[in-house]
Every structure is written in structure tokens, then in C-alpha cells.
Amino acid sequence: MKEKIPVGILGATGLVGQEFVRLLGDHPFFRIEFLSASSSSSGRLYRDVVRWKMGEPLPPEIGEIKLIETDPEAILKTGVRVVFSALPSDVALHVEGALREGGMLIFSNSSAYRMSPDVPILIPEVNHEHLSLVKLQRGNYRGAIITNSNCAVSGLVMALKPLYDEFGIREVTVSTYQSISGAGLSGLPAMDIASNLIPFIPGEEEKIERETRKILGELKNLKINPAPLKIHASCCRVPVRRGHLESVVVKLDGRPSPEDIKASLSSFKGLPQTLNLPTSPLRPLEVMEEEDRPQPVMDVFSGYPERAKGMTVTLGRLRYDGEVLKFFLLVNNTVRGAAGTSVLNAELALAEGLLEF
Amino acid sequence: MKEKIPVGILGATGLVGQEFVRLLGDHPFFRIEFLSASSSSSGRLYRDVVRWKMGEPLPPEIGEIKLIETDPEAILKTGVRVVFSALPSDVALHVEGALREGGMLIFSNSSAYRMSPDVPILIPEVNHEHLSLVKLQRGNYRGAIITNSNCAVSGLVMALKPLYDEFGIREVTVSTYQSISGAGLSGLPAMDIASNLIPFIPGEEEKIERETRKILGELKNLKINPAPLKIHASCCRVPVRRGHLESVVVKLDGRPSPEDIKASLSSFKGLPQTLNLPTSPLRPLEVMEEEDRPQPVMDVFSGYPERAKGMTVTLGRLRYDGEVLKFFLLVNNTVRGAAGTSVLNAELALAEGLLEF
Amino acid sequence: MKEKIPVGILGATGLVGQEFVRLLGDHPFFRIEFLSASSSSSGRLYRDVVRWKMGEPLPPEIGEIKLIETDPEAILKTGVRVVFSALPSDVALHVEGALREGGMLIFSNSSAYRMSPDVPILIPEVNHEHLSLVKLQRGNYRGAIITNSNCAVSGLVMALKPLYDEFGIREVTVSTYQSISGAGLSGLPAMDIASNLIPFIPGEEEKIERETRKILGELKNLKINPAPLKIHASCCRVPVRRGHLESVVVKLDGRPSPEDIKASLSSFKGLPQTLNLPTSPLRPLEVMEEEDRPQPVMDVFSGYPERAKGMTVTLGRLRYDGEVLKFFLLVNNTVRGAAGTSVLNAELALAEGLLEF
Amino acid sequence: MKEKIPVGILGATGLVGQEFVRLLGDHPFFRIEFLSASSSSSGRLYRDVVRWKMGEPLPPEIGEIKLIETDPEAILKTGVRVVFSALPSDVALHVEGALREGGMLIFSNSSAYRMSPDVPILIPEVNHEHLSLVKLQRGNYRGAIITNSNCAVSGLVMALKPLYDEFGIREVTVSTYQSISGAGLSGLPAMDIASNLIPFIPGEEEKIERETRKILGELKNLKINPAPLKIHASCCRVPVRRGHLESVVVKLDGRPSPEDIKASLSSFKGLPQTLNLPTSPLRPLEVMEEEDRPQPVMDVFSGYPERAKGMTVTLGRLRYDGEVLKFFLLVNNTVRGAAGTSVLNAELALAEGLLEF
């Protein structure tokens, strides 16, 4: 058996950082070499700093790791070449940029570089071919940044992809029901959201509109042409712990039958399924038949093995009148919408030979 | 001072029934003469049966009222001519029909007769002229039924009305965030909704689509022609106690400026405001300027006097790109969406001379 | 490998019934032979009737089981000798009694027979010797009933047992924080408990006081003498999905050191651990060191393998001033507090040779 | 009519600060002259800084007040002599001390000076005579500090007072169910408490034990001798917005009848009721007869006029076996437990002539 590739996790104490720790703590290809946090925590043991919120115990040996500061110099000194970033965008802008200059490959959940023309927003089932933008970056820097999308976008774009390819899409209207975990460990005071709704998430609607078009965009000569569909997004925070529900209304170009639509969604597969990557779910999309599903409490966290720990997007309530297609979807925002897709991106990059330094 | 008109409340122990009691317990024109409940409670005191959930105390003298059975014969014997109905639809179909035959005027929150061609779904600010359908009914029966709309419809149609009249509307897409009180006192088990979302409310989407078209419809020769706009509705239950939030996307016919739209909504008034009816709010619509409002906890129950105890619909986050108008609205589902509008309907009917028997 | 023992589950569609299905669906000693439900559901497939709320999928082959009616005659006809009962108490009184007459061994979560002198309330780690009461029953009936305790009692009595044996207990004061799942699938309307507290659970305080004394009681000549300690219980429902938290204040007879107390709790083991029964946790009690644990969201459902799927009771915040011992405990109310302990009881009964008919 | 006394509010943007604004915005004796906040907000309008969470609208003229910095020099320059403090304890230690030196009378919700021998923890219904400690302070400083108690203490001590005086109390065991508003506007991240319980509130149990003894203590020669009763407190945060529920178990010295106990609690009145102070409730304690009350959603916020906007403590579920008295109580933590009692303290001080400078 080959030796595992050493990796680092930037911003390891937050909620997405913890998901990275959970997913990489026992990964067949990668092993955690270092964890970074803000300067106030550096030098302390991970277990003494982290407010661990995962449903599984913190692996004891990872709890013993001494945190290093999220400082490019300190990070580059580790000699590690692959990092996963759960940094906030303002910090990421500087740190990820410096690490790329220093030759690192960064799989980032941050939005800082998502809209850069040479940076892919990668969801392997949807746009694996965008990974080749890395070549463009490597022309200018020693390293490269590969991002995953905004958490609400990840579910939406996966559901849209097969419809877009098979029937064409003119217009998408989406209203979101986003859980509090989307605001991170401490991002949302309880008094704001307890038994309440907040119909505003800063920057979210813009991200949904432009990231979706980029991800569905066509790559030509190492340039992405955004997909020409209209997207109208309205975002709302709801008092639910995990999982973003989305009410989606789609106008298709073609006029398929309801059965065609369902078959298109249910049978959707991508390169991760073909390559059988460790973090890929058997089925990227699952169309539920029950009249009142998907529901966060039952469908986000489930022990259902075929949903691969939160990587499957569940859909339900498909309604199609020949003109307008309506459905609800549910995405595990910290797994498929964040750390999980970043890990899948790294597995794809490894399979494509990009991790041979 | 004129003597108050005696009224009865059908289904007085449920949540909407309690709102009727609260609103009519100290009303300038009406006084509660009887309260009805199911046969198992009849003969008992209201205060011993009701699980009172209002934020104000049950008036002691109303607590002492002995419940009568929701039985047409017993109700007709009371001699009362005006009743407010909070009955479930299946019961309402029989009881309200029989009471109408018996000469009563029924202000009903039930959906049983809403779609009958001769029954108005009345929201006085929006379609007061539909009240004349009562003439049609009185041609066939001794009494008449006047309904208010579904709770989610009430907020939506009030926001649409000024836009529809001033600019024309082609298409409306709405996703709802409906509170648990919408399911009544005992309609929803806690295990179903606690920290969860349920993207399905039986019959609700159909009601939104067809009631909205009827209410906005044109009355000609005592016949309502449904408004020719398309409506796409998706309904979801959320773990919030009171207030239905709605994410609304509207395609207008015209191309007004954003200022025109805001002015149209903010200045909207109707006949109840002109007549200064007791239950009418100063402003039917309030457009909030804050970037994250309206919110149920702050805007549904508020002691804000100009919101008249839940009769004002609050709107916020108006976004208009010249083509698509997006906003959120919040409606107090048990007041404006149910008992409050029924009481307003009775006040209008009184002003129009329909309560002179 | 020996053949598995066929068993039935009474009341299989409720929350505790579902836990039984989950725990017995893949059990090394037992296999589900039949599932019963009320007459309105009998004849239908389990998957078509059950509102499945478990975190793991319903095993497809169990979904295909056709429900039989919870009728003694029908049940006795199956030929099965061992049943698990999740029946409500009023139904259990008749059905369990009739099945016992018919020769069945019933492992029951119902409270109907708990206080009968010849019926054990069995928690194998605490009072395995009470199982011998079965002999007493078999003198009078062909079968026997073995109950588990009330859900709040199960956590309390496990924490008290080592303290009682080692140091003596004079008095216990307990205030509970009981989750909504304790009221079953539909037992509690959302409007009652959403963002609210209900300081009353019918019958619960009495159960805590008398069941605890019985379980800790001494068995002499097949008669249980209740333990002579005082118990003051106050019960409250809280808006949490799973897990009952309890604030416990104990007055000990002796004056051990804080270290003695902690050691007594942490090292507590019972017969199920010695026998290595499949459903027994490695550690019945886990004393958490963190200053703010246990917490339902993290400690009830956890994938922590040593907690054996909800069979470990977690304790925290031990405070001892030499006179009064205070701590919080958390128990998984549907597993350790209900179905899990019943299954453990059956495993113990099997080990003791009671299942050889 | 006499001119109103100008007052300032320190820390006016937080939750307790907002309660002060609400209670003093339309007060018969006081008028708000200035509002202070941290340096980052000073110079800005109150309405632009505050995240207003009250159920009533912010009075427009108060919204227009320009915030000053919470700096002793700036505050003393205002010339105002009476301030209400909602400062965090660490800030209060310095600021309130300096203002006292400067001659101000400070009605403080902070815990910084509560345990100073010359500072009263004043709850006018319980220990109005402690107000004379102000003389002691004025011997040493130009001004004085008068505190109200910890929020959980306020409800407890009011319920204990009549029992203590009439029957004697040996021992009190209390477990709390404290709402998220107790942690302030932003003190508790939603991910920590949503659908969860946290059985730890830093410092709270110690405060309950020592503040209760001080408040019930006897004043002799300007020295308070703490009441000699034992108190065992266990504190837990629960996912409820407003109101602290407490499960209280009391051992009395005497052996009154249950009727005596109820009468003692129900008829409890104090000096504020005699003086008819504006913020005093008609009944400081209300014993509810329903089997499942008090409940936060219905009893904390209620429009019940006799509960005076949150100043009445509601009790329920009195259970007495001749030896141990058990009950639940509910206190509005931001009104009776914080700003409301401070305002009542100022009204009492005014009545006692302490506000004549």
C-alpha cells in the first residue's frame, strides 16, 4: 500500500474545519500532518482549543496535534504540499494567495478566489473538466487554488446539471431555507434565530446567481463562459441545525415528460462515481417518493450508507405541469456544501495526477 | 350608543376560534352571545374546555359561557343572526350550509365554500366589491356565507393588489415559510417539526393558486372572472410559532421604477381605511427598510399600534432588476390570515347595511 | 451457528416500536417474525403504515412485513413465544395479561404491570437478580412479563446504584429536562412545546419515586422490599428532540471523598458487561470531564462506539461539598430508557436459560 | 406636575439596556437624558446602532439620541445624577466605581458590586430596608450604588420571602431552566443551544447561593448577616427565548398546612405595593392553579395587566407532603430579573428621598 499524502487543514477549529478533520482523520489517501488556527490558539493542543461538534468522537491522536498559526511562512515551513482551507474569506485572500505563490495546492472552501477566471469552482460530478484551469494558474504561480462552491450552490447546481444537459434551462427561481450551521460555530447569536426566520444572508444571493452560472459554464481554451441561464435567488435563515433546503422552480427549454425528468435526476452520475473515489456517493442525487420529504432531521445526517455521509443531495416533491418544474432539494451544507466536496476535489486531483510534485 | 349585535362563534376552542374570542370579546359593534364546540364539550364552561393560547387573558365573563354543540338546530335556536366560523372544512360543509339555509350570515374561515361561484373570498382592502355576491346567494338561500382566504393567500394577495392594479402582473412564484400555528392547536406533532422543515402542506399550494386568482378576479354581472396571472406555489412548514413568511417573485407587465413600486406598496389603502373600520390597520402594507426584516419574532405580534394587532402585512427586501421583482412578506396567519379578516369582513358588511335583518 | 429465536413486536409503528425494529432487525440472537399494530393498520405492509423516524434506513425486508392486529388471539396463533411490547399502558394491561396466560414471555416497555409484586422492573446492570421473580409468575401463569423502567428512571437508577451500594443514600432530589420524544410520535402538539417549557408530565413524578425504590429494593424470598430512600421528583418537558437530562442532588450516608465518588461511578459494571451481552455498553456510566456536558445534541445519539448506540448514561458536573452530591445525567430515553433495555433484558433472560421453552 | 428627573442609561444597546429604554422611555418620574455605549458606537444615533428586540417600537425621539461613550469623565460631564447600568461586570467595576466617586447614584444590573458589604442587592418587595446601606456608602463616597440581583435569584428570593418569614426555611434545592435571553443579545451562539440543553452557566450557581442569603439576610447596625439557610443550585440553559423557569424544593422549619402555604404566597405584598410605585405589580407573586403552568410562552410576556409587564413572578404545581414543599416558578429575566427591578429600586429611592441632591 502506498504511503498517504501529508496534508494540512487551515482554520481547523471552526465547523467546516472540524468536518475536514473528521473526513481526513481516517482517509485512505491523505493523513493530517498539521492543523492551523488563529495566533491566539497556536501552540496549544487541538483538543484543548476546539469546541468539537461532530457526531463522532475526535480521534485522540488528532486531539494531540499542536496547532500552528495560520501564517503563510509557518505553513510553508512544514514542507506539506497539500492543504485544505476553511478560512474566512478575508483571511483566505492573503493566506491562500501566499501559499499558492509558495507552491502549495489549496483545496479551499473560502469564497475569496472563487470568481477568479483561472480558479475552478469544482464539483466533480458537475464540472470535473474545469480542473484543467489549474494549468493556467501554474503558468503564473508555483501552486494552485481549487475551490468548492457556496454551500447553497452545491445542492442547486447538482440538481440542475442533468436537467441543463438533457433539456436545457432558461430560468431558475430559488428560495432557500438555510440552517444555522451555515453561519459557522459562532456566527449567529441564538437570540437572532431562535423560533425566528431571518430573510437575509449577506452576499448569499449574489453567490448563488454567479457561482451557479460559472460552474455550469462551458470551458473553452481555458476560459469559462458562464451558462446563459437566469437565476433569481432569495435566501432565508431558518432555525434548523443542519442542512439547507431549497425550493426550486425551473423553466426548461425542452418539454420532456415527467418520467424523463425523474429519470434524468435519478440516474445522474459523474466522474467520481466512475473512478469510485472514496468520498463519492453511489448516487449523487436521490429522488424521494414520499409526499413530504426531504426533511433535514431525517435526510441530512442519515446513517443511510448509500448517501455516503452527507454527499448525496436529496430531492422531493417533483411537480411538473409541462411548463414549469418545481421541486425541493436538501443538501448537507457542511459536507456536500463545504468540506466533503473539497476532499472529493482532492481525490479527483490525485486521480488526475495533479498531486505528484 | 347603539346596541351591539349578538354573534356566535363556531368552533370556539381551536386556535382561530380563540382569536375570534379575543377580537370579539371587546368589540364596539358585536358582542359574543354563544360559543360552540364539538358535542363532547357542549354543556361545559368555555374556560374549562379551552386550552387558551392567546397573549392576553381570557375575559372572565366569556370563560363563564356554557358551550353549545356545533349543531345547526341548536345554533338556529339561539336566534342569533351573525356567526363567525372557525370550523374544520368537513364539518363546515354541512353546518355552514344548514345555517345559511336557516337564514344566518356566516363569516367563515373555513375553506369549504370558498370556491363556490356565489361565495366571496373577501379581503376588504382588496376586493370589497365581491361582497355583492351576497345578493346572488340571497336569491337562493335565506342567509349567506362570506369567507376569508387561506392564511398564506391573505398576505400574498394584499401585496399583489396594488402591483396588479398599477403595473399588471404576468407571473408570480411564491415559496412559503409557514408557522406551526397554521396547523391549529394540535394539528402538528412536535416530533414532526422540532428543529425540522416539512416541505409539504396538504392542499395549500392549490389554494394559493386558485384563491389568489379568484380574489384578484373581476366581478361582472355577479360573476367573478379569475385574474389571468400564473402562480407557482411551493409550501413548507417551519419551526416558528406565529407568522407566515413568503418569498415572492413577481413578473410585472409594465416597467415601473423601483421607487414607483415602493410607493405603490406603501401607499396602498382600501375601503376599510376610508370607512375607518375598527379592525382595519392604518396601513395595510408596511414596507420595512431594514436589510433583514420582516422577522416573525419581531414583526408578527408586535405592540406597534399602527400595525393594529396583526392586521398589517409587512414587506421587506424589495429587489427589482427592471424585469423581476423580489421581496419577502410576513403575515400574521391567525389574525390577518384568519379571524381578523373575518371580523373586518363583518364590519364591512355592517357598514354596507347587510346586517340589518 | 444456532438458529435465531423468532420474536414479535407489539405496537411496532410508534417511536419505541421503531426502536425495537431497529435493534432487532439485525440482532445476533433474535429475528423479527411478526409486527403488530392497531386494527386499522393490520393487513397493511409495515413500510406503508410506519412514519419511520430512525436515523438509519428501515431494512427493506422488514418493511415488507404485513402487520397483524394487536389482538391476543391473533398473536398467540403465530406460535412465537417471545414478544417485545411497546403498547400504551391501557392496551398493555389487557393484551400483555392475555399473552402471559397464553404462555408468552413478554419484554415490555409499558407501565401497566411494573408495580405488580411478581413482575420485575429489570435493568440488568442494576438488579439482574430480580429476574428470578419470573419463577413466581410461572407458578401462576404459563408465561411471564418482564418490564423495563420508565425512561427517566432508567438513567437515574443506574447513576444511583453504585452510590447506593458503596456509600448509602438517604435522599434524592431530581428535576428533569425531558425531550419531546418521550411523549411518543404524536403525543405532544408542536404548539404546546415549541420554544416553551411544560412543567408537568402526567404520572411521571410518581413513577420516578416508586419505580426507583422498587428497582433498588432488596429481593428476599421472591419478594422485593423497596429501598428506604426518599425521592423528590419534579418533571418538565423541554423543546429538545432526544434525550432526558436530569439534575440530581443526592445525600449520601457516608462521607466519601470526591475521588471515591467519581471512581465508583466510572468503574460501575454489571452482569451484562461480564456476560458480554450484545446490547450492553462497555461502560454503563460515563463521567464527562468537560465543564458543560453532557448535552443532548452531542451525547445522546453519538456514533461513539463505546456508548453502544445509546445504552451508556452520561454524567457530568459532579459537585460534592462533603454533604451534598450534585450532578447532571443524560439518558437516551428511547434506547436505554425503553427499547434498548428491553432487548438487553431478553438477552439476559436467554443467557439465564429462561428462553428455553 | 413636577419636572421629571433626568437619567442616563449605561450600556444602552444590549438586551437589558433596551429594557431600560423601554421602561424609562415613558416613565412618570424619569426621563432619558443620555444613552451610553462602547467607544465604537459613540457619536452615532441610537437607532442606527441598536439591534432593537423589544416587542414594542423604539420611541422615535429616543432613536434620535446620539450615543456617548461609556467613559466616566464623559458621563460625569452630562450633569445627570441618576444612572441605570446594564454594563458587563468587568466594565462596571471600573465605571460604576468612578461614577460613585463622582457623586452619582447608580442603579445597576451588574454583578460587580453586589457582594460589597455596603452595597444593597435590592428587591423592594423583599428587603427594602437594605436601602439604608446607602448611608454607609455615602460616608465613604459622594454617590452610591444600588444593585438588583442576578436574574434567577430575583424570582427565587421573592417566592422564598413569605415562606421564610412565616414558616422558616432550612434548605432550598433549585434547578433552573434559563432562557437564552439571559446570555444577552449575542452571548450565546445558536449552534450551542438550538434544540439542545447546556447544563452549565458560568458563575450562576454561586450567585444563586450567596445572593439569596444576602437578600434574605438581616440588617443590623448597617451590616447584613446572611440568612442561615442552605441552598443547592444547579443551572441549565434551555432553548427558550424569554423567562427563567425554576424547579424549587424547600424544607420548612414549621409544618404549615398546604392552605397556609398557598395563602402565604398568594397574599405576599411589600412596600412597593403600599406606596403604589409605578413599576410595582399588583401582586408580586401569582400562584397558578392549572396543572401545567407556569409556561414561558404564555406567562412571561403576557398582556395580563395585573402582571405589570413582567414584574409578577408566577408559581405553579405546589406540592407539599408535610415535609418537603415543591413548586415551579417563572420569572421574566430581563424585567423582574434585571431592568424592571432596577427601575423599581429607583422609584423606591425617590420615595425615600434619596434622589434629592
How would you sum up this structure, described in words?
The structure is a homotetramer of 357-residue chains. By secondary structure, the first copy, chain A, is of the alpha/beta class. Chain A contains 14 helices and 14 strands. In chain A, the strands form 3 sheets. A 6-stranded parallel sheet of chain A has the order 3-2-1-4-5-6, sandwiched between helices. A 6-stranded mixed sheet of chain A has the order 10-7-11-14-13-12. In chain A, strands 8-9 form a two-stranded antiparallel sheet. In chain A, strand 4, helix 5 and strand 5 form a beta-alpha-beta unit. In chain A, helix 1 crosses helix 14 and helix 8 packs parallel to helix 10. Chain A is globular. The relative contact order of chain A is 0.15. The model of chain A has no long low-confidence stretch (mean pLDDT 95). At the A-B interface, strand 7, strand 11, helix 13 and strand 14 of A face strand 7, strand 11, helix 13 and strand 14 of B.
